[in-house]
Specification:
- The complex is a heterodimer.
- Chain A has helices at about 50-60, 90-100, 105-115, 130-145, 160-175, 200, and strands at about 10-25, 25-35, 40-45, 65-70, 75-80, 150-155, 180-185, 195-200.
- Chain A is of the alpha/beta class.
- Chain A has a single domain (about 40-60, about 75-200), classed as Rossmann fold (3-Layer(aba) Sandwich), CATH 3.40.50.
- In chain B, helix 1 packs parallel to helix 6 (about 90-120) and helix 6 packs across helix 9.
- Chain B has one domain.
- Classes of the chains: A alpha/beta, B mainly alpha.
Amino acid sequence: MSAHPRAGGVTTLLRLDRVACIRGDRLLFENLSLTLRRGDALWLRGPNGTGKSSLIRVVAGLLRAAAGTVERHERCALIDENAALDTELPLRRALDFWARIDTVDGHSVDRAIAEMALAPLAEVPVGMLSAGQRKRAAMVRVIASGAPIWLLDEPANGMDDAAQARLVAAIAKHRANGGAVLLASHFPLGLDDLHELDLGALA
Amino acid sequence: MTALLALFWRDLRRAWGSGALWLPVLFFLLVATAFPFAVGPDAPLLARTGGGMIWVAALLAALLPIDRLIRPDRDTGVLDQFAVRGMPDEVIAAVKIAAHAIGFGVPLLMALLPAAALLAQDMARVQTLAAGLAIAIPALASLAILSAALTANLKGGSAIGGLLILPLAVPMLIFGAGMLDPSGRGAMKLLAATSLLLTVIGPFAAGAALRGLRE
């Protein structure tokens, strides 16, 4: 995997060492090791139920690994099936809440909204948005957070072609800026220079 | 710190903005209204028993909002997002308790005046009631967040949540109503001690429960 030129000290953002995950009484995977450096993107593939989402949640710190170690050297931003935006608020204000939690200023939110082309919907309540629009809104939350590690669990679900192109562009920009992406998805989204990990083959 | 303030204001806004908050307060007033119909409009009797009734009504009103305290944040992934950011569950619980204490406590204290009037309480008793409720409110908020966190994964959680709260809140009911007794000078101190204990335990117990929700 390539090291990014801009990376000052630490180039490794994320390291998993012989990680195992058990859900219920089922062993999803074991002895899984991976490293994400600046600029890397890793595609987790595999059939349903092989543990793509669970691996993302283990990396995010939401699930305990049954064995092994997870080292995060930088902040993470997560997108999963929940947008985590207050449905009663206008989109802009719902995103501003997370900007305050992440202590980033309004300009980062503005730029991220522009990147996902959501500016016309800024005053629309989140509850009125379609599934694809909500995914884009969640993506704005991830982009604006400024976290170097992106954990994207099916980020393109419900997105149309134009939105997917914007997602791909956002990921490329993030990698160019020295970020890393862990992507769980059925399809590779058309990303360049993408490493693969087939969880179906591990099981 | 900015993040915690943002969280506090969000919870307060959700409590007051949705209108859901007025439900427990209305319920509180409803009980105060229904009680004279049940025991008759005998002012001395109402004055003697009304204070205790207000305490029971306040306790029951505290049970009502349990369903909307933690479960919506779990369902929409907000709690997961806090955890991804490494915010300690105990701190989240403490902020939620503080927001609920203000969001629920202030309207409850305001509703105390009409309720006390309906139950023929004189000014001295209203003051005692207000002081007692103000002491108990942090503990009630603490218990509400705790049982909301414990039951957020369960179907029909609010009913079970109520069952969890009531036994723990009984000491406050005893000491709080005891304050109304002219001979009960120590009751206020005991109420404060009980309330302090529950308020201090709350964030840690609720934090552990929030962690348990992710497993």
